[in-house]
Amino acid sequence: xxxxxxxDENKYTRPRPRNFMMRPDEQPPFAELMGxxxxxxxxxxxxxxxxxxxxLTNRNHVLHGGAxxxxxxxxxxxxxxxxxxPGTSTATIESKTNFFASIAVGDxxxxxxxxxxxxxxxxxxxxxxxxxxxxxxxxxxxxxxxLTKPGS
Amino acid sequence: xxxxxxxDENKYTRPRPRNFMMRPDEQPPFAELMGxxxxxxxxxxxxxxxxxxxxLTNRNHVLHGGAxxxxxxxxxxxxxxxxxxPGTSTATIESKTNFFASIAVGDxxxxxxxxxxxxxxxxxxxxxxxxxxxxxxxxxxxxxxxLTKPGS
Amino acid sequence: xxxxxxxDENKYTRPRPRNFMMRPDEQPPFAELMGxxxxxxxxxxxxxxxxxxxxLTNRNHVLHGGAxxxxxxxxxxxxxxxxxxPGTSTATIESKTNFFASIAVGDxxxxxxxxxxxxxxxxxxxxxxxxxxxxxxxxxxxxxxxLTKPGS
Amino acid sequence: xxxxxxxDENKYTRPRPRNFMMRPDEQPPFAELMGxxxxxxxxxxxxxxxxxxxxLTNRNHVLHGGAxxxxxxxxxxxxxxxxxxPGTSTATIESKTNFFASIAVGDxxxxxxxxxxxxxxxxxxxxxxxxxxxxxxxxxxxxxxxLTKPGS
Lengths: 152, 152, 152, 152
Prior knowledge:
Four copies of one chain form a homotetramer. The first copy, chain A, is of the alpha+beta class. Chain A has one domain (37-148): Hotdog Thioesterase (Thiol Ester Dehydrase, Chain A). Chain A is 18% helix and 38% strand. Chain A contains three helices and six strands; from the N terminus they run H-H-E-E-H-E-E-E-E. Chain A has helices at residues 3-6, 29-34, 65-81; strands at residues 37-42, 45-51, 88-99, 108-118, 122-130, 136-148. A six-stranded antiparallel sheet of chain A has the order 1-2-4-5-6-3. In chain A, strand 1 and strand 2 (45-51) form a beta hairpin. The longest helix of chain A is centred in the middle third of the chain and has 17 residues, at 65-81. In chain A, 47% of the residues are buried. Chains in contact: A-B, A-C, A-D, B-C, B-D, C-D. The interface between A and C is small, with 7 and 7 residues.
């Protein structure tokens, strides 16, 4: 638990306004539930690691495809937030994943997210997810819409 | 907890072979971590519900897009398993999601998965995810490959 | 050839401004090259037919996948235009296709496009393409962004 | 028209068996209709050029999105064929495109297709399409299934 969290123990139960803007490096609850760890963050590149625990597995006893997609979606969202102008927020509007190889329990999923496009109304991100042995496990492309907050 | 689970308390820590085939109605660990509940299952249709808890939220304080995709992926996998012939297994090879509306904390995500295509080598599934007010929140299309197990 | 076209024989060679807005029922040059025929158009539903000629085939001697996607993209664009407010235009920002069955030379591809979502900044369309025997050949989901024209 | 074509003027009207296998460098009719030109072909990389003529435009008077997708699909198919073992054929089972910038009439679309995955049952290809000024116009990811021909 980081210092911010220590000082903010009620953050999940306290009412928060819609579009509350967390800092890019402050990860949302679902990322914490899964155990994602951001390892690098800049507007041009975000990386993360996810240790494959039993709790994250599918019926083939490897990392669940949904967990792979959630890891990527969280990185794409983090990268999009790192590129926002004041008074704007972002949401994923579409995401596409191709799966190439499974990731076993005990292994780590390494994710790297880089931009394909950064426009005024949308940004598009590609995340490559590799295994400990370096093999490409999945590739995810997602579009984030840039929203102007009410009142801005 | 069902009877099978009661007799198998160590199921997540015991080594299991790759491609161990759970029954379609036995949900994998990641589905349990998230709190998905299968509400109907037949080869032609699988439905599920997911209560949106704080732990499943993104930085906009609504259901995380990754959780939406995981819910759908789990249904598509369940539906694909319900259509498998003996001696075969399945894996998701690609998945595409469009997001239309967010789902708030306390609301429930309702998911319904139906087949678009059921061939010998692939099956393709479409999952519609709606909110408590009936609005379409997301639509997911995924392809499952049918694998012949070694030794079959 | 409709009356508008009769009065406008040089329409492909005359310079036209970017974002020139054709009427929804006036089809663009690429649709004419391929031989698409719009058979119904309303804001809620657009349908078209495409006769599979030799010129549209791939190396397997059936309708080229690219032609299938072009047929759908053209319908999605037409449907999006039929929903535009004055002073706006639209462009496809992403498109996803799943192919299920091939369409033979001499057969006709029947396409039907309906909305999944119509928001202020994006509209999302799904097009089902069926063969003469009624079998589903492909399904296409695409997102159209709504652009405000400069000066509007 | 190349020498092969000169000796085979009836190739589009003569009946051909399903799954007739063209050489990878022999382009199918739809590619010729559009004017695609393959500029490099090896199992690891295929490139092509497409001059944007009036006939290929959409209602915004730029290269039609369907033409962009057809260009990519044709390259992915060509690349997949270049990797086939004897007695097998291939078909596109799914394709995803993100569009970033339009390509004007008179400009040339440059496409480069490289593999993301080459397995026994599927190969996955990514095609980047750039404009004359080097800007990325679109990116396409597609899955090709490897089919064993009847009798093989």
